Each structure stands twice: as structure tokens, then as C-alpha cells.
Amino acid sequence: MSAQPAVSVIVPTHNRADYLAVTLRSLARQDLEEPYEVIVVDDGSTDRTREVAEENGARYLRHDPPRGANAARNAGAVSAGADLVALVDDDVDAPPGWLRALVDGARRHPDAEAFGGPIRARFDGPAPRSCGRELPPITTLDLGPHDREAALVWSANMLLRREALERVGGFDESLPTGGDEEEWVRRLQAEGEHVVYLANAWLDHRRSGDDARLRSLMRSAYHRGRNLRAYDTRRGAAPTLAHELRVLAGCGWHTLRRACPQGLVMGAHSAGRTFEAVRPR
Questions:
Q1: In DSSP terms, which residues pair with 124 in a beta bridge?
Q2: What is the DSSP string of 17-38?
Q3: For burial by CB atoms within 10 Å, which of 42, 59, 170, 171 has the most?
Q4: What confidence tens digit (pLDDT) does each residue in 145-155 have?
């Protein structure tokens, strides 16, 4: 690339070459008129991740052995050539106007240091039936149709100014998945900085094949529940065990009363939190 990119897009990944291929194809068709770069940070994959990255024109970095998603984000940011650093997960599908909406939003809100956009759940193929009263069992974000200040945004769809990373430090590499990017956003806000939700910078967060089936969604929700409870404990914000048990019982009642299979996913998440609450330290 002969010119400095206007934005660098970081994609951490681990053994999900099929998902990654969809993500990179969507990033390759962005309609941003300025130059941009895509950096894949491979966290110790053993599948075709490197070939997929190279086939789609992305820069490729590798951690071996794996060091976690936050370490991948930090490595990508250090390698990035732009002052704006975008983060996405390896299982998203971004429409052509996504990156332009992020860059335009950063220019429209010069006082903000971090940004996020809508994250829409998308299931490719069969998925558990829902009664419509619960959120999709993957990370989503919808704060409405207009730009606004946000309490939290997620790394599936996030934009940062490099100077913010340099000032408050990188992502905490000791955290597991669950609370990993949230800790950085809270640290930024503790410095008095603003985070803005950009309503037009939306993308799809995908699940496909076996990953969209009930058993896989429950297993993922359980582990995420454990990690989130551990993060809440670390920051001194964990609810009581009684609260966790009430939520778990409510998930069971919801599942039975509504005959809602997706209630089992909520229950698995709550079970993970409850297990972590009683686990001996």
C-alpha cells in the first residue's frame, strides 16, 4: 500500500477459516474511497486460516502458541498503519457501506475516542425457535436509529483512535473471552473520554451450520456465563449467589411456560454464572 491507510481493520481469529472467509470477502468489498488495510491476527490456528487471509488480500500475523483475543487485538493495533483502528470478530458480514460509516462517524464526532455500531444477529440455516421475548443468543447491539453516546460497545464492531490506545494502554491480555473488551472501554471512560454509537455503521454477527444448533449455542453460552461472572468478580461488581440462583430459576420457568427452546440457552448462560459463583477459589 503506497499511501497511509485511513483505517486499519483488525480481525482476531482462531480455527474458524470458514467464518473468516465470509468476513474477509465482506471487508474486501467496502466502498470507502480512501485506502484501508485488513490485518488478520491468527491466534494459533491449525486450519486454513493463513490461506484464507492471503487469498483475500489481508496482512497476516500469527501467535503460536495462542495468547487470546485481547493479545491478538493488541498485536494488530501495534502493526496497524492508520490512526483509526477498527475491530471486528471473525464471524461478521459487513455491508459495503460499513467502513465508510465508521470513518465518517469518527470525523463527525471529533471529541470521541471510541465508537461502535449496530450488531445484528444472523443465523444461516436452522436455529432454535424463539418466543420473541429474549435477545438472540449471540452478541448484538441496538441503541436506536440515531448517533448517541454509549455506555458500552463491543469488539464485534468497534472503532478506536490510536491515541486513545496509547494513552490508556492496550487491552488486558489476562482476561478470558467475556468482559475482555468491556474492561478497556470502562478504563477509557474512567479517563473522562466519550464512546459514541454510530447508527449507520451496522453489520451482521453470524452463526451457521452446527454452531447455530441448540447444543452448540448452549455450550457457548455456558462458557461465556462463567467468564462474565469471573470478570464481574474481578471488578467488584458480581451479584450475590442468591441473585444468580433467582435468574437461573427464571430461565427455567421461561423455558417451560413459553415452551421456548432458546430459554435453554439463557439457562446455560445463567448456569455458567452460578457455577463460577460457587466454584472454590
A1: 208
A2: HHHHHHHHHHHHT---SS-EEE
A3: 42
A4: 999 999 999 99
